[in-house]
Design brief:
The chain is an all-alpha fold. It has a domain at 18-125. 68% of the residues lie in helices and 0% in strands. The protein has four helices and no strands. The protein has helices at 18-94, 97-107, 132-135, 142-155.
Length: 156
Amino acid sequence: MAYSHGSAAYQSEWAVPARRIKKAVRAQVRQEAKVKKKDKKTALNVVLVFAVLFGLCWRYVAIYDQSSDIASGRAKLAAINAENSQIQMEIERETEKGRLDTYATDVLGMVKPDKSQFVYITLNKGDEMESARENNGGKDGFLAKLEGIAEYFGQE
C-alpha cells in the first residue's frame, strides 16, 4: 500500500483522481480545439490561395482578349493604309497634267486659249481696304442695308 495525500487508503495505480481526469479532459478538449482551429485556418488559406489564383487567371484572360483586339485592330489599320496608298497612287496617275490635257482636248473638245484671249486688268488704285461703316456713314448692320434698299428704290 502506498501512502498518498495524507491518506493510507488503498490507491491503485490505474485509479486516477477525478481532478486529474478533469485536467486531462480539459487538455484534450483544448488540443482538439487547437486542431479544429488549425484545420479552419488551413481551409481558409487554401480557399484564399484558390481565389488569388482565379483572380490572376481572370486578369490574364482579360489581358489576352485586349491584346488580341489590339492585334486585329492593327491588322485592319494596315489593310486600310495599304488601300489608301493604292487609291492615292490611282488619283495621282489619273490627275497627271498631260493626261488631263489629253482628256480635255480629245474627249471634251476643249482648246487651249491663245494670247488674244487673255485679258489683263490694271488697277489705278493700290490695294486698299475700306470698312463698311465708312461707306454707310458710320451706320452698320441691318439699318444700313435697309437705307441702301430704300435709296435704290427711291431713285427709280
